[in-house]
Amino acid sequence: MTHMTATLPETLEKAATVEFRGLRREFGATVALDGLDLTVRPGEFLALLGPSGCGKTTALRMLAGFEHPDSGAVLVDGEDVTQVPAHRRDAGMVFQSYSLFPHLNAVDNVAFGLRMRGTRTAERRSRAAELLELVGLADKGERYPHQLSGGQQQRIALARALALRPRVLLLDEPLSALDAKVRLTLREEIRRLQQELGITTLFVTHDQEEALSVADRVAVMRAGRLEQCAAPAELYGRPATAFVAEFVGTMSRLPGELKDGTVEVLGQRLPADGEVPDGPVDALVRPETLRVAADEQGTACVVATAFLGAVVRVTVRLADGTEAKADLPAHEATGLDAGTAVGVSLPERPVLVAARTQK
Amino acid sequence: MARRLTPWRWVVLGLAALYFLVPLVASVIFTVDAPGQGVTFDAYTKILSTGGFVSSLLLSLELAVATIAVVLLLMVPAVVALRLGAPRLRPVVEVVCSLPLVVPPIAFVAGIVTVLKWGPEHLSRTPLFETFVVIQNQDFPLVLVLAYVVMALPFVYRALDAGLRAIDVRTLVEAARSCGASWPQALLQAVLPNLRGALLNASFLTLALVLGEFTVSHLLGYAPFAVWIYNVGGEQAQMSVAVSVLSLLVTWALLLALAGAGGRTRSASSRG
């Protein structure tokens, strides 16, 4: 464990600021990045989240030096690195696909970067052994990649990425090839390591749960632009745009009527959040906010229920045919079978509104 | 399922073995069975004393080594660049590399002969004249290496392409680059070691091709191993068959040696 305390101050003082400034990149007719501006604070774990094709991987690869922007700049600690070749970027990277060198065993894989730097054999072996211990695979040093499980391979890839004490750690969907259980433990471990080392980290993912659970801040991207960058709780509770609201977590759209900053929805008049002109709008409602109770006179009816453990997700159809989802504690949901007439209401709190999209 | 097929597998194996072994065994019997004298190895002992055996075999081996070196230096960077930089050009390169299979060696060599005749006449006052002289050096005809490189292209391309298909070149290169490796380092230390099987296969095929090549070398007037066998055979039937059997064994031995070398480095590296 001594190596950890030895590594810690060193990496902390090296923690870097990363800045994307007006990054733009086109691949033929598709615009991968359309003027991306984003700043990552020193030592921060920032998740880049978005649907596939939103440009998040392109942005990461630009920081790694594998892609070059058509315009804009990438800055590390205020220094423009846009023209610096990949091998001098000082960025460790873990890839989506298994990227260990198949001809080298675990120790030599981890020590690869040190070998490229001309570190002496004894020194790089001991450093590699330390890193393997850090990722909990000290006993697997002599194994070859094909003798290791996917999760073990990604841990070794992580150790390899950290071997050169990089200023930035780049994670390109490192968990997406793993099965659910391994994914969960490994993401916790990545988070723990990142906090121990205090290294500025960019984590690309399309899995919103993953992003919300590990990151300090989450940057949601859409079509090459930044939609919102905020802490997970804020992103979930106060999404800046309808896109963020619906991409992060589950969101139901309930038709309403906006007038003078209040919205008429489900027969209630509530303060409205969001900049839309008066008129027909959609209120965006999280399933845990929506209240559902059995009611003989209710105009809505239950369409389906799904048991999720602590809660039951109830899908209801409103009088006008709109479907909405509500999460109820398991004991409240008893008796709410498909076809039950129910009453649906909202708590007296501001609701997010967005321009009407359907019907 | 596999078990039910087993008898059929043995039948096929037996037929294939017969097909290959019968001529081979017949050849061996023919060389050792002198009429009226019983078994004798005269035909084999005579080979060594016949002039040209060692020199022609050496020439063939030298040509093979040079051809392997040139064709790999040419093709490895080419196929890797094709993977990383221009995947769309792959069909083009594939077609170009397959052309030597379509052009018969006889047509190929006719073209070479024409160029070799035309060149010195028209270039006699330029430094290129010397080039034409050098490539036709009797001791080491570079022109044959050039010809063999072209003839080996289809095999080498296919072997390397299969090897590259098995690895994710882009990710390996990027992983190496993010570990601080420059481009040449990434290729040499991360990609090439994982192509060893493919490189070995390509070398095998080229070696076998060069050792057995007859048409081009004969028509250009050189005497590597295959041509020497042919020349000897014209004089003594029994000895020519003995030489063929021997050349088969020599080729096998060389291929086994190559395979052994490849296998040894693999087990050595896996130990530590």
UniProtKB/TrEMBL annotation, chain B:
Question: PROSITE patterns from the xrefs?
Answer: ABC_TM1
* InterPro entries found in the cross-reference section: MetI-like, MetI-like_sf
A cellular component term, taken from the record's GO annotations:
plasma membrane
How does this protein lie in the membrane?
Multi-pass membrane protein
Sorted alphabetically, the Gene Ontology BP terms of this entry are: transmembrane transport
- Give start and end of each ABC transmembrane type-1 domain: 57-258
Transport is among the record's keywords: yes
Keywords for the protein's UniProt record, in alphabetical order? Cell inner membrane, Cell membrane, Membrane, Transmembrane, Transmembrane helix, Transport
User: Does the keyword section mention Glycoprotein?
Assistant: no
Q: Please list every transmembrane segment annotated in the UniProt record, as residue ranges.
A: 12-32, 52-80, 92-120, 140-160, 204-229, 241-261
Where is the protein found, in the record's own terms? Cell inner membrane; Cell membrane
Which Pfam families would you find in this protein's record? BPD_transp_1
Which family does the UniProt entry place this protein in?
Belongs to the binding-protein-dependent transport system permease family.
Q: What is this protein called?
A: Spermidine/putrescine ABC transporter permease
